[in-house]
Amino acid sequence: MTPKLSRLVTLCGILAVSAATGSALAQSAGDSHSARVWPANAQLLLMIQKAAHTLNYRGVFTYHHGHTMQSSRITHVFDGTNERERLEALDGKPREYLRQNNVVRELIPETQTVLLERRQGDLFPGLLLSDATAIDQHYRIELRSELSRVAGRACRVVDIVPKDEFRFGYRLCADDETALLLRARTLSDEARMIEQISFTQLTINPKLADNQLESSWSLEGWRTVEPDEKPIDLYALGWRIPAPPGYVATLQVSRAFADERRVNQLILSDGLATISIFIEPYQAGLSDYKPHGPARNGSVNIYGGQVGDFWLTVLGEVPAGTLEQIAKAIQYNPSHAAH
Q: The pTM is what?
């Protein structure tokens, strides 16, 4: 993957358990059913979302795709008004992410840099990436009768089944007592697991010291960097980008990169899945416009191509055919641009 494409994939802030367990496990878990009402519609997802925002918890979760596994420690506190969260990467390069509500500080120790950003959508154990009102139109939500177990806690298995070919399915396991999301799997159209993110350790309502929400590094002398971006209207600029059924635009911005390029970005979401479309001027002398056509990076499908004097990169955790359909339907006519 080229450095440029890697940067684009990184920008896409992009989301994501098990099949039926043995009868002995189901029986032991079934003895502890909670009195909570579990609706088989989008309200269930809102309930899971609320738990991620309003509970206090600390734990370790693991992301798994193919041969890749990465673990992180999360500490989350809600005081009745504001959320605070600390996320520590336990594998690879040291990173910490300190969040208050939707403002996130990414700490990069090797350059002593604090990258300040406003988060779009939720990350695990959050679930929804945009408005949930249309989810029932495009997904079927099925609540299984048996319980499973994750990180030593009984959890409800929820299948989110797509009604068309434009999105993947999901299998969730939400804590039976609190509705906190404990495990999420993204499933292909053949019900094959594409990726999984799951708690391996979890304490709900833990006793926390004040410094457990603070960075382990002294930030004195570190520089703070905010992304150079501004809102835009791609339609007014002459772009016609048909969205697949159920997907709506949630963000349109122009981003500046270190090499003085500006790249326009459109994010589409159906509430669970997101698609990012990057548009930049095409320069024939450069050789790093990749991919040409379909490609894949981990669980993210990618489609690249040229439209007029521009290069498009379309990516997301959605079926490859969805991205190809979008890319081939995009049109640019400068005469349609507002003057």
A: 0.84
